[in-house]
């Protein structure tokens, strides 16, 4: 709930919205040219064909060197 309304706040004040790229991968990502800002792991469930399945999620927020 902490970022609820964050986009509306930025757009209503004509502020530049940060660029955000999201991708999902099963491959190992090379972090040599980046800095991990935030990292967490959690379990979630997804629904398919009338059943719930466990899904292990690793979330990393990184800052890319440009």
Question: Please, could you describe this protein's structure?
Answer:
The two termini are 31 Å apart. The chain has a domain of 46 residues. It has a two-stranded antiparallel sheet with strand order 1-2. The chain is mainly β. This is Rep protein.
Using brief descriptors, characterize the structure shown.
66 residues, mainly beta, two-stranded antiparallel ribbon, 1 helix, 44% strand, flat
Which helices and strands, and how do they pair?
Layout: H1 6-12, E1 34-48, E2 51-64
Antiparallel strand pairs: 1-2
Principal-axes geometry comes out as flat
Question: Which bin fits the share of residues in helices?
Answer: 10-25%
The total count of strands amounts to 2
The mean pLDDT is 75
Query: Which structural class should the secondary elements be placed in?
Result: mainly beta
Main β-sheet: number of strands, strand sense, barrel status?
A: 2 strands, antiparallel
Q: What percent strand?
A: 35-45%
Instruction: Going across the biggest sheet, name each strand in turn.
Output: 1-2
Q: What sequence of helices (H) and strands (E) makes up the elements? A: HEE
Tally of alpha and pi helices:
1
Please mark out the parts with pLDDT under 50 across 5 or more consecutive residues, or reply none: none
Rg, please? Answer: 16 Å
> Span from first to last CA?
31 Å
Brief characterization of the structure:
By secondary structure, this protein is mainly β.
């Amino acid at each position: 709930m902490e970022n609820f309304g964050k986009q509306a706040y930025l757009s209503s004040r004509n502020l530049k919205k940060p660029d955000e790229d999201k991708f999902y991968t099963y491959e190992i990502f090379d972090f040599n040219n980046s800095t991990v800002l935030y990292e967490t792991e959690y379990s979630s469930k997804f629904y398919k064909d009338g059943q719930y399945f466990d899904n292990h999620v690793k979330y990393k927020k990184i800052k890319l060197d440009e």
